[in-house]
Amino acid sequence: MASLVLSAMGLHPRQSLVKVSNNKSVRNKKEGWYLRKTFFDSKRDRTRDHLMISNVASHQSPASVPERESCADHRNHAAWTSVKQERWEGELVVEGEIPSWLNGTYLRNGPGVWHIGEFNFRHLFDGYAMLVKVHFEKNGRLIAGHRQIETEAYKAAKKNKKLCYREFSVSPKPDNFLAYVGELAKLFSGASLTDNANNGIYKLGDGRIICLTETQKGSVIVDSDTLDTLGKFEYSDPLGGFIQSSHPIVTDDEFLTLLPDLLNPGYLVVRMEPGTNERKVIGRVNCRGGSAPGWVHSFTMTEHYVVVPEMPLRYSLQSLLKAEPSALYQFEWRPERKAFLHVVCKASGKIAASVEVPLYMVFHFINAYEEKDKDGRVTAVIADCCEHNADTTIIETLSLKNLRSFHGQDVLPDARVGRFTIPFDGSQFGKLETVMDPEEHGRGVDMCSINPAYLGKKYRYAYAIGAKRPCNFPNSLTKLDLVKQKAKNWCEEGIVPSEPLFVARPGATEEDDGVVISMISEKNGGAYVVLLDGSTFEEIARARFPFGLPYGFHGCWVPEN
Ligand SMILES: CC1=C(/C=C/C(C)=C/C=C/C(C)=C/C=C/C=C(C)/C=C/C=O)C(C)(C)CCC1
Ligand SMILES: [Fe+2]
Known about the structure:
Layout: H1 2-8, E1 25-27, E2 34-36, H2 43-52, E3 87-92, E4 94-96, E5 104-113, E6 115-116, E7 119-120, E8 128-136, E9 142-148, H3 152-160, H4 177-189, E10 200-203, E11 209-212, E12 219-222, E13 229-232, E14 249-250, E15 255-261, E16 266-272, E17 279-286, E18 300-301, E19 305-310, E20 313-315, H5 317-321, E21 331-333, E22 339-345, E23 351-357, E24 362-372, E25 378-387, H6 393-397, H7 400-403, E26 416-423, E27 431-434, E28 445-449, E29 461-466, E30 476-481, E31 486-491, E32 495-497, E33 501-504, E34 514-522, E35 527-533, E36 539-544, E37 554-559
Antiparallel strand pairs: 1-2, 3-9, 4-36, 5-8, 5-37, 6-7, 8-9, 10-11, 11-12, 12-13, 14-15, 15-16, 16-17, 18-19, 19-22, 20-21, 22-23, 24-25, 25-26, 26-27, 28-29, 29-30, 30-31, 32-34, 33-34, 34-35, 35-36
Bound molecules: the ligand CC1=C(/C=C/C(C)=C/C=C/C(C)=C/C=C/C=C(C)/C=C/C=O)C(C)(C)CCC1 and fe (ii) ion.
InterPro entries: Carotenoid_Oase
Binding site for Fe cation: 247, 297, 364, 554
GO molecular function, one term: carotenoid dioxygenase activity
């Protein structure tokens, strides 16, 4: 009987449910039951709790959860360990105080599962997408959850117990020559590419929540409350192509993105209005550096211009066609083809400037703005980014083998806050400078956010992950003061924090008046959400999940109403 009741509630009979009333318990939103919540008093307690977490309630029967093997090894950091179950929802106990104005849902996207049965993925970027939500209720309660995104790639892997689509670093192995020819045909049509939307997450102007990866078919609409996968975001335009930037620039009024053109090397700058699925071309940039476009994981814009990066790390058609990835997976480093930045006018689509710049290696641009003379004429565009010293080593540093084998060595390659200056006087060259001494943020910097009200405008603050050395991955949160060229850092032993997301206080007049939200994975297998004050950068609250959560990439804020 008891097991029937539990099944009806979507819980597996083996999962422990207790109706308790002490303050060490967490209420199950659905049924008024309580999930036993262990509070960590000491390191020993934490380890013990970690070993118990298979009892955490999930709405999914364990039978339908993909097998967990070595990835779920307790010796691995939670950040690089597949999540324990496909979905979960519950209330979190808050330590500290959540500001009463913080009312809405924080969503985070990122890899959740890095294996199919015995088969292990190779790279951080491969993992099947998982959403994490933390809903901040008006009354100060936190309802949290996580859930795998039901993409074609994930569902096919679960059903067939093998890799069925081409992920970032791994491709399905054709069984025979005929299958190989079939695979090639599918590659040319884009059919073999994954739709594993594990990277960006945005609230569109019309309220839809979209998750994205670099493949256009990897654009997926989800429900911010249930975390249900609602379906593919089907672009209704005839623009075609397979690839897109993982990071469109999304505001209440528009969705701007770049579509690399692999056949006729260049980029389309496209814009989509809220309420539509139709991208319209604003302009096109032809590559100046040869036969393949540079990788555009992200880009940036000012109030009037889109900044199109042409990195020396270029898509490799050869690698895309091969089943075995090359050293840089689907990319190749081509310094002899140089590096460029192009500036496209949003209104006319015309190229306002196109300059050669020093070599650079950037995943994430931070922001950009226009420099004007006394008559209000634009003299230059300034574009800031997290720059990896023109070195691609970071890509291999992010392989799972490297991330999972940290023994105190200082192996995270140095990164800096890079500032490009693109002059509007017809010069051929732009500048790339370091904004602050990289020691300020431990020579690690990436996964940045700003106050969205300052998008495209002169700004002062950015939030990012930074490094406390020695480390093999950024292990601190950093607030960058780009004017004073100083950073404030927040760190705790053994943590891996995801992108710090800045949420402005409604009605704020100061740029840093708000909170910073980040999900933290711990080396002992735990996870918690942390809130820092945007101004002092001190912790104001945290709430622990009842089990570990893997590292995630990007977040977004969905205000209530
Ligand atoms: C999925 C396929 C592809 C590409 C996917 C890519 C390029 C995903 C990239 C994700 C990135 C760049 C995440 C960045 C994280 C950076 C971190 C954590 C930096 C830390 C630094 O310290 C294609 C190759 C396009 C095609 C096949 C399918
Ligand atoms: Fe990203």
